[in-house]
Design goal:
Helix content: 40-55%
Number of helices: 34
Oligomer: single chain
Shape: elongated
Structural class: alpha/beta
Length: 797
């Protein structure tokens, strides 16, 4: 019996292909251009997924399902959302222009119902895997029980399978018993520059099976399968299965007559095969030969809807790049655009009148009212838009500071988190930690001992069970609050991205913390940027950092990470020197993750703190003598804003030392040495170069817009300094991180830091080598702001 949905789906598929093609054409050939640049839009890459996305969105998907759309299929997605009423014609008319529909689906920039941002190739694919693990975490903790589990689905371009992060994610999924995940590979056998190598799908199949996935090959559509049942059909099938990718693409572009010639040449006049071909016109033969599994609506519906289990499943769907368009199959079609003449031919074939291109049901054979009723009843839309909200988790007014005379910020972080773990509070219950096999060495061990590791099946620590002494109790259960990952920083940031979107994807608030070694942020930087672009909310604790990790050598010593923290949008970066500062910043971070306002900048700091975001903490293994201070009021606020006076300058300072992070003792010692001759020397403690710079930049913009009294935190701190006062900045990181301070009020500045890879050694050795020691700070001050000749300058080496 024929599926009653098929007539509607076939009409809507035609309309979706038209709208996506027209949207790109309009952006390139109709909309006025003020710069003459090609807009682009990937008409062919979109077309290859039109059938699959029609089947999914119009029939198969349920509201709880989440989809990462292949980046180049963005126009198809926007067309579907337009038919659903979730996308506006105005946005489509502004496709790839300011405030219009985005080039690639974006959670933060698009107005329609995007589940996962895509665009950085391969990351959206892996993101679905980690989102499924987060769904398991939430259900394992007994939350969100009133909502059914959804499938996390990725629509994957076959060329995306070259990305290494996908294979790293596959291994992690296998470790954690991945469920409820579909990856649908758009196997059109064409990449940006070439046709895909022969036999790649067989490698894909073997790989996925090795990781425990079900593999379904969607190669032949229903027209082809019917033809195979005819006399001679077995020979036709053998020919198709053996046909090289390049030849198949070339014949697809050339059309029915070319198919006939080639088939007759290769198969000869063999009676049944010749008769099979003769029974079809050139047009019918072309339709038969391009009726691959990924373009066959009846077959797709049957295969998708027969899946009745939660095992991870990959569908290798054979498609034609550019299917249904004049450039179908051509090897140059990736960036190709239909000409005006080709578009007019395509318009005629779709019965679209000039001037009616955007009308949802123009040229379709069914009554608009019937189509609208069908769209309104689509299962995927049963619960409307699927951006959830979650209740705010109350954060304690103050986090306890460990009472240790000497302590590092890394150790302090572990103690603060362990203290939180002692409490039986909703706040503690919603914290989830994760780390790429450096749990113990980043001081998460005590927290994990107390809160356990997450797994879908309980597993005892065998060392403990066998009564073998061990510091750590590695017990796994569904209630555990630490997710242990393998050594792959890309996976860490993709997991943090998924955890940090749990409030929006699943309606449950989590407070994620990920720890890693600071230099290895750069290994996962693409995924970190991707997570921030999605507006995921998490805390990154990067430790140890800098050349201060002296014995580890250059490969483990970070240089540029402070500037990454400054430059990364959506991430507030801090580098505290002392544990009381860390306690204040952590408390702020837990609150900051949960903010979602659109308020104007705070006119005290000129920071957009009401919007919230993620937080990066750059910590150190260096133990420092800890000060004893009140953590409330003005001091706490200044720590969060980015700086405070450790030693306020006198009325006529010649020099101010500004330091950040673990070099605090050297800065303090340098000020003490200079104080013998310079009474009014100031010492500025910087906790966040990122927030100081952001506030200063925002205040400048405000003044340029007419708010003449706008002043940022750093401007207020430096305003009392006389113009002839000089600044010496110092941090264990790239010196440009703080070099901009001289521009705030026009003070002459010398910036010290690390510019080259380090070696092994002691902290003292490497600080001298890089000019971070007290004598180097004093020497820099003497050169930039000469005083009386002094005896404590370092002798020439």
């Amino acid at each position: 019996m024929s599926d009653p949905r098929l007539p509607y789906l076939e009409e809507l598929e035609r309309k979706i292909l038209w709208l996506s093609t027209w949207t790109i054409h309009h952006a390139n050939h109709v909309r006025p251009s003020d710069d003459g640049l090609k807009v682009g839009g990937h008409q062919a890459s979109s077309a290859s997924l039109a059938t699959i996305m029609t089947a999914l969105y119009m029939a198969v998907l349920r509201p709880e399902d989440r989809v990462a759309v292949k980046p180049h299929a963005s126009p198809i997605f926007h067309a579907i959302q337009y038919l659903f009423g979730e996308q506006s014609r105005t946005n489509l008319e502004r496709f790839r222009s300011y405030k219009g529909a985005q080039s690639y689906p974006s959670r933060t920039k698009d107005t329609d119902d995007v589940d996962f941002s895509t665009g950085s190739v391969g990351l959206g694919v892996a993101q679905t895997l980690f989102a499924s693990l987060v769904q398991d975490f939430i259900h394992g903790h007994g939350w969100n029980q009133d909502r059914p589990e959804g499938r996390m689905i990725a629509l994957v371009g076959d060329a995306e399978m070259d990305e290494g992060n996908i294979f790293e994610a596959l291994l992690e999924g296998w470790k954690h018993g991945l469920r409820n995940t579909w990856w649908i590979i758009d196997y059109n056998r064409q990449s940006l520059d070439a046709v895909i190598r022969e036999g790649v799908y067989a490698r894909f199949e073997a790989l996925f099976r090795a990781f425990g996935w079900d593999v379904i090959i969607l190669k032949h559509g229903s027209l082809q399968q019917a033809a195979f049942a005819e006399p001679g059909g077995d020979r036709l099938r053998d020919w198709i299965d053996a046909c090289p990718n390049q030849l198949y693409s070339a014949l697809t572009f050339s059309g029915g007559a070319a198919w006939r010639r080639r088939l007759m040449d290769d198969l000869g006049d063999q009676g049944p095969v010749a008769a099979l071909l003769e029974r079809r016109s050139d047009e019918e033969l072309a339709r038969l030969m391009t009726n691959l599994g990924g373009h066959d609506l009846p077959g797709l519906l049957d295969v998708f809807e027969r899946i009745d289990h939660d095992r991870p499943t990959v569908f290798i769907a054979y498609t034609v790049k550019g299917m249904g368009l004049p450039l179908a199959g051509h090897k140059d079609n990736h960036a190709g655009l239909l000409t005006r003449e080709q578009l007019d031919t395509f318009r005629t074939a779709n019965h679209v009148r000039p001037g009616h291109e955007w009308e949802p049901f123009e040229g379709l054979r069914m009554a608009p009212g019937d189509l609208r009723a069908f769209l309104d009843a689509v299962p995927f839309r049963a619960r409307g838009r699927r951006r959830y909200e979650a209740a705010r988790i109350e954060v304690p007014a103050q986090l306890a500071t460990p009472d240790h005379a000497v302590l590092s910020t890394q150790a302090g972080f572990g103690l603060i988190l362990n203290d939180i773990g002692r409490t039986d509070s909703e706040f503690a219950a919603r914290i989830v930690t994760t780390s790429p096999d450096v749990t113990v060495s980043t001081n998460l061990g005590a927290w994990v001992n107390r809160r356990g590791l997450f797994a879908k099946e309980e597993m005892q620590d065998l060392f403990r069970a066998e009564r073998i002494p061990s510091t750590y109790n590695w017990t796994f259960s569904t209630k555990g609050q630490h997710v242990e990952l393998g050594i792959a920083e890309m996976n860490l940031f993709l997991m943090l991205s998924a955890l940090g979107l749990s409030h929006s994807l699943f309606g449950e608030r989590l407070l994620p913390i990920g720890t890693l070694y600071d230099p290895f942020i750069q290994r996962g930087l693409d995924a970190l940027n991707y997570a921030c672009y999605q507006d995921a909310r998490f805390i990154v604790v990067a430790t140890p950092s800098g050349v201060t990790l002296a014995p580890e050598g250059g490969a483990h010593q970070s240089i540029s990470t402070p500037m990454i923290g400054m430059a990364q949008d959506g991430l507030a970066a801090f580098e505290p020197a002392y544990v009381d500062e860390l306690a204040i910043i952590l408390r702020f971070a837990f609150d900051y993750l949960q903010r979602s306002g659109d308020a104007d900048p705070d006119e005290r700091s000129w920071l957009r703190d009401a919007r919230g975001g993620s937080v990066y903490l750059r910590l150190s293994t260096r133990s420092l003598e800890q000060p004893h201070r009140s953590l409330t009021g003005s001091f706490a606020q200044q720590v969060v804003d980015g700086a405070y006076w450790m030693r306020e300058p006198g009325p006529n300072p010649q020099v101010v030392i500004a330091y950040m992070g673990a070099v605090a003792p050297e800065a303090i010692e340098a000020v003490g040495l200079m104080a013998e001759d310079r009474r009014d020397v100031g010492l500025l403690a910087i906790t966040s170069a990122d927030r100081l710079n952001a506030g200063w930049t925002a205040a400048q913009r405000a003044r340029e817009s007419g708010a003449i009294h706008a002043r940022s935190h750093i401007e207020r701190l430096l305003a009392p300094l006389p113009s002839n006062c000089c600044l010496v900045t110092v941090l264990d990181g790239y010196p440009a991180t703080l070099a901009w301070l001289g521009s705030v009020m026009g003070h002459r500045t010398r910036s010290l830091g690390v510019e080259h890879f380090g070696e092994t050694g002691t902290i003292a050795d490497l600080y001298r080598r890089h000019g971070l020691d007290a004598q180097s700070i004093v020497a820099a001050a003497e050169v930039i702001a000469p005083g009386r000749p002094i005896r404590y300058l370092r002798p020439a080496s």
